[in-house]
Design a protein that fits this description.
alpha/beta; 5-stranded mixed beta sheet; two-stranded antiparallel sheet; 5 helices
């Protein structure tokens, strides 16, 4: 069973400087996958934002891309401290879907 073939959504937590290398090595068609990105930054070698990397390198459209961002700290989440983050996408359905799968009593996702 190939996990990439059987899923429709990928949660990206790969550090930005390894995204291209990592997903190229996996060698799967990501163009129809929904990407929920939890990484931050730009790719230094190309000055591309993460959304641009997924679009130019892997064919992921903005309709299939969502960004989950803070400010938040891992220790807040680990200790179940109230944490709020934002789910942002041009596709409101995807932003709401992201909110629904990540939100709980202490980790609140807003769209």
């Amino acid at each position: 069973v190939d996990i990439y073939d059987d899923c429709d959504t990928i949660v990206n937590v790969v550090p930005t400087k390894f995204i291209t290398e990592n997903y190229t090595r996996i060698n799967k068609d990501l163009s129809k996958k929904k990407i929920i990105n939890c990484s931050k930054g730009i790719e230094i070698s190309t000055n591309q934002r993460i959304s641009d990397i997924f679009n130019s390198q892997f064919g992921v459209t903005s309709e299939n891309y969502c960004n989950l961002s803070g400010p938040s700290h891992a220790e807040e989440v680990v200790y179940n401290s109230l944490t709020t983050v934002l789910s942002a996408s041009v596709n409101l359905d995807l932003a709401n879907y992201t909110q629904s799968i990540f939100s709980n009593n202490f980790f609140r996702v807003y769209t």
